[in-house]
Each structure stands twice: as C-alpha cells, then as structure tokens.
Amino acid sequence: MATTSDFDVSQLSSDQQQSLQQYIDVTGQSINDAVPLLERSQWNTQIAIAKFFDGEGPDLVAEAQAAQNEPPRPSAWHGSLLDVDDDDHHARALSPRQRTEPAPRVVPSQTVSWQLPGILRILFTPVTITFSLLRAVFFWLPQSLRLPFFATIAKRGLGRASTGNPTLPKEAAQRFKRQFEEEYNSNALDFFEGGHAQSLDTAKKEIKFLLMVLVSPEHDETDNFIRNTLLSPEVLSLVNDPENNIIIWGGNVTDPEAHQVASEYSCTVYPFSCLVCLTPKEGSTRMGIVKRCSGPMTPADYVKELRSAIDRYAPELAAVRADKRAQEHARNLRSEQDSAYERSLALDRERARQRKEAEAQAAAAEKRALEEAEAAARLAELRQQWKRWRVTTIASEPDATVKTAVRLALNMPPSSGAGRLIRKFHAETTLEELYAFVECYDLLQEQVYDEKATKPEGYEHRYGFQISTVLPRETLEPSKTITLGNRMGRGGNLVVEEISPDEEEE
Predict the structure, then answer these.
(1) Which domains, and CATH codes, for the chain?
(2) Which residues belong to any copy of the UAS domain (predicted)?
(3) Is the peptide bond before 271 cis (omega within 30 degrees of 0)?
C-alpha cells in the first residue's frame, strides 16, 4: 500500500471521481490500489467493494481473450485457478504450503421453506423419522466412529433442522452474547454484536485479528471448554489485551448464520475456534485463516496456538496499520490544506469584492460630484443670463413730479456691500419687480445693459433672499399682482435677508 498517490485524479470523469470517492470512504484503500480495481469492475462501486471484502478471482474473460491471441503453450503448473491472486504478485511466489486458506465472508441467505403435499408428506413420514434417528445416533457416537459419509449426512441434516424462522445477524449475535452471559454469569468476553460478514469487514478495515468461536449445545465438551478454557485467565488476558488487536465473534450452530459459517469453514469438530486476519503478502485485500483450533483444549495449548499465529502475522499487520495511519494523516493534511486554501481563496474573493464595491462607489461619487458641478455651473450661467435680461426690464426711479411714488428704505445684505439704500418706486410696481431690482442691483450700479439679452428658455428663476417688513415683521413674497402702493402705501422700511441653501430647499 502506497502512502502517496501518483495517479492524477483530474483525468477521470465526474462519475468516475464520485465512484472513486465512495469506494475510498468505505474501504480506506489508497488511490493507486483503488483505481485498477475499479477499472476491472467497470467503475461499479458495489462490485468493487464486494471484490475488496470477498477477494477477487481471476478475470476469465481476459484470460480467454489472451488465449485466443497467443498460441497454446505447455505449462508445468497444475494448480487451481483459485490459488492465483491477481491483486498481489507476492502471492505467486508463495508455495501452496505457505499460502493460507481464504476466509469466506458469510452472508446469511434467506431460505424458502417448501413442504410436500399432504398425501406425500404422510407417505414420507417413515423416511423422515428414520433420518432423524440416524442423525441423533451420529451426534452420540465418538469422534473416531464418525464416518465421513455419516458426517456429511448429519451436517446437511443439521443445516435443514437449524433453519427456522429467519433472524437478522445482529439480533442473533446479540442473543448469543446475552445467553452466554446469563449461562456462565460472565461478561469478560466482549463478543462482537453483529453478523459474521460485518465482523470480518470490521477486522479488515481496522486491520485486526478476528477470533471466531463456534459452539454446539449438543456436545458434552462445550460447557467444559467455555468454563475452563475460554473463560480462563490466560485466554482472557490474551483476547482482551488491546495490544493484540483481537475482535471476538461467537455463534451457536443451531442458529442459521452460525451453521452456515460452520459449513463454509468446514467445521466438523466442536468447540471450534478460528483466527482470521489480513494477509498482505498474499493479497492487499485478502483475509486468510491463520489458525484453526478444533475440539477441547487446555488453556495453555489454546493460548499457545493463538499466540503463535498472532506473533507470526502481527508485524505485517502493524506495518499495514502504520501505512494506513500515514495515508490517513496525509489525507487529513491534504484536507486541511485544501480547507485552508478554500478559506484563503474565499477571503481573497471577499476582499476583491469589497475593493470592487469601494471603487464602484468612489467612481459613482466622483461622477455624481462632476454632474453636480456641471449642473451648478449651468445653473449659474442661466442665472447670469436671466439677470442680464431682467435688468433691461426694470423701470427707472420716478422723478419728484410723481406724487404717487413709494419711498422705500432697503437694508441690503452685507454681502452686497450696499448698506442702507433709499429709493423711490412707482406705486404700480409689483413685489416681484422689487425682488428683481434687489437681484440686479449690482448690474444697475455698474450700468451694464445688454439690449440683445434674452430670457433663457425653460429657466425658472429662484431668488436667494427674502424681503421683510420691520415692525411688525412680515415676509413679502415676490408676487406679480400685489403692488407696492397697495402693500406699503407711501413708503416704509424693508430688510433684505439672504436665504441659506437648506432654507431655500425647504
């Protein structure tokens, strides 16, 4: 197993990358080992996971195609095709004696009960009774008298007898653990609460040993083995030691799943114990049977058998475990680096967005200020044009012969520099004309007249001052209908006050 990935994942399609990620999440295998297996499985995640846990046989289609393209050659090897593991070249270099027996992954099958019709069931009743008697006699015979033929018959009969109502593997495991603790008043052994397939997958994923214990209540040695051997201090110390990395799974052969496990592992003698673990030299994903213990054994012999297998395979499992930890560390490091990069990238994007918004706001403010300045300049130009035109329409001061003239004293604003101004106006002069006189007073003083000046189109002049009486104080609006004669009589004092821009807007 490689600690680093040399494969470029970007070469895969999105569906293939998704299948690869799902496969790695379930199996924890490296990318270099996962991609070839997925390619052989046509990128089907379920088929690849099944091959990972159950082991992968030879590709018969590829061998047939190769045989068609190459001439037949004599071979000196006459072994079985099942002995070849295509996933690991080290397995080919091992002799048949050095190779371990593969550990089957047992998934309980739902059996369908079928019964004979009523008449045939009555006719076959003597045969059924005879078979049951033979099976009972077989279990009471000593081990040396059990012929292989009768063993096969009894084994098949037990399988049919033990298949009752279907039970979930997890429920069967929990029931076995509960009955074991009640029967022997001990919970020193922490049996795995799950099916055999789940325990085997857990042992493979966590790279631990799986100790399977199968018992049969019909054997006399079962109780003695459990009390004196399995629950002995020596065995408990070995199994419960965390350094040994042992998962223990137990089953009663009267349960359908345990009976199927006993059949797959060729168990004929009880009590039966089997030690299973990952065999890296024979295949990176291969689970093998490294030790079998059948029949009653003393605690010393039982520990010795298990210890020999553990000492033999523990260094290999420790190396694989360290390799897996290194892969997980590298994966976590890459994940943290990717997360930090994403956070940094998000922060950079946020800063760029804020900078872009600030630049847009500054540009909008600058554009708005420029437009306001242009509008103010245009307004000032129109205002000046209006004054040049309006000054030509202001009537001159009446002479002394006009007896109806209105004499006004105007206190001009400080900005005009005119101070107090006294002037006569015609009685029919409107208040708006009085405002125009004050507005154009500077041009009247300079005597600047442009006879060609015209009124700007679309411009409505607004005075930046107001004229008020002194006592009582009252503001005079620039009306075009109210005359000075009607409003002021023969004369009076008025005050010209400038209006601020805010007051003007109000």
Answers:
(1) 9-87 (no CATH), 117-162 (no CATH), 394-505 (3.10.20.90)
(2) 175-307
(3) yes
